[in-house]
Amino acid sequence: MTQSLEFDQTFGFIAKVLQMIGYPSCLAPYPTTFASRLKSSAGFVVCFLMLTYCVFGQIINIGLLMMGHRQTDQVVEEVAIQVSSTGFCIIGLAKMYSLSYNRAILSWLIADFRVKWNAGELTDKDRSIRDGTLRPTVAITTVAALGNIIMVSAFNFQPVVEMIYGRVVTGEWVKLFLYVIWFPFNSTHGAIYYLVYLFEVYSGVIVAVGNVGFNCIFCLLTSHLSMQLKLLCSWIEDMVEVEDEKGVQSKKKLYRIVRYHQDLIRGRNALQSMFSTTLFLNFSASSVLMCMQLYLITTAGITLMVKFTLFMLCILMEIFILCYYGEEILANSSSIAAGAFNSNWYQSKVSQQNPRFGKNLIPIIQQGQRPMVLTAWKFWPITIRTFSAILQTSWSYFTLLKTVMH
User: Which parts pass through the membrane (predicted)?
Assistant: First the structure.
């Protein structure tokens, strides 16, 4: 028999991953004083400032490149590469800011879901629904986090491999960097080069962990909410006890369901407040980034083409997973109205003893007909249809860019 899933197991791995960039454990209670919050987030603040300078230095470099202060034979391609790198870092920076700014909301959501998870009145059927919903999400987020760590490690060592290969072929060392960042000093001089390279390596780790940490937290929270919606729908369908002649037990279950539904609506509103703006930036920027990658794939050599293709696939997978879990909330909240209608409210014993029982279901049905939809800044609903729209937008940008360039 499969062991029941513990609540801390759902967030445990991603909490450890986020600690790589100094983010306090999301399973720990929220600090009550400003001093304690600052102390627990000191490492995270340092990482945030490092990534901020990384973004700032890349933006300056793009400006110098476009003004002709940096010599290159392929300005458009070079700008496209720099814009893609900078855009990815900006998204990571925004996600880190969101995790920090909304830490209190995150702590409240996790505490609320923990109470519901450990509720003593859950039956074996409820626990089966609970574990069956969360186990795949935990597996997906774990694989996503590990995959990002592996890819970042490969990206960090790519310049080293290229330098070794250049040394073998030409007999000379050519100093390369992970990012093209402006520094107010000569970054290739002596020991400074190694310090700058280490700075860029850890900046790459920061942006990757910030991105995947935010995404996994979103997936886990939405999966918890989806699981609670599934439980609610199951309770609604089994709400009426045919043998309950006076309808007392059925009425108690109805009141409990109404309160539970209201709690889940508050949870949805908290999720909307926490993720809405950042996901709008993510979706908007991803359209442009995928356009850039498509253009670079069609113009680059075979080695760079593989690199740009993998980068684009990572963006596609990220957007798809976010939209998929948003779709889960939409689908499970939409089933509440059908569950209420399909309950045994029309059974003679219940309806005779409590004629208003059926009418009391009307608000639940009406609320269920307005399904919960998370939106990216009230502009894009986070659903599979939005994923399709982002792909179409990216393709339109790409075809326009190709037409202009040719």
Answer: 42-67, 79-99, 137-155, 176-195, 201-221, 274-296, 302-325
